[in-house]
Amino acid sequence: MIRSMDVGIRVSPELAALLEAHVNNPDALEMPTLGSVRAALAQGSAGEGYEADRLHPETGENLLQELDSLIDEFGVEAPAADFIRPSASEALSRVIEAVMEQATHPPTLADVHEAMQSGLIAQLVGEGVLDEDEDETLMAEIEDLIDRYGEEAPAEEFIHYE
């Protein structure tokens, strides 16, 4: 497994969205790889050929070429999930920012988890920053990020607002 956030940064937003859709597909029987995503992209959802002239505006590569470049470097069996840039929900992003405001050093995911367990969520609910019903989902989300990226991953890199 690659598990490097730097790899996710190298993937265009369009390709990241495509990879994420395949990774989050509840009907998938196996975890998607770069090769399986490429095969699906080349065939299209109904079996028709994919329009290969959709270019990524920043790099000038189309999605198939971008996938081929990743496959050349990491192989067809590389898990697609390793190429998705990690991000937190808006609610967890607010929690991370609250921890950053209070921290004397850049907080890690473990620091955020600890602050959440120590009452930060209740404090933010009281201030109206979070909804009351977000407690369980936020804990599950931070634990999932820790499982995937480790306790020492810099929390700031996960902040995301839509």
Overview of this protein structure:
This protein is mainly alpha-helical and 162 residues long. It has two domains: 79 residues, no CATH class; 69 residues, no CATH class. The protein has seven helices and no strands. Helix 3 runs antiparallel to helix 4 and helix 5 crosses helix 6. The longest helix has 18 residues. It starts with a helix and ends in a 13-residue tail after the last helix. The N terminus is likely disordered.
What structural class is derived from the secondary structure elements?
mainly alpha
- What is the domain total for the residues? 2
Gap from first CA to last CA: 28 Å
- The whole-angstrom Rg is 18 Å
Estimate the helix proportion, in percent.
40-55%
How much strand?
Answer: under 5%
Number of E-state strands: 0
Short characterization:
The chain has 162 residues and is mostly helical.
Mind sketching the topology for me?
Blueprint: H1 5-10, H2 13-23, H3 34-43, H4 63-74, H5 90-102, H6 109-126, H7 135-149
Helix pairs in contact: 3-4, 5-6, 6-7
Summary keywords:
2 domains, mainly alpha, 162 residues
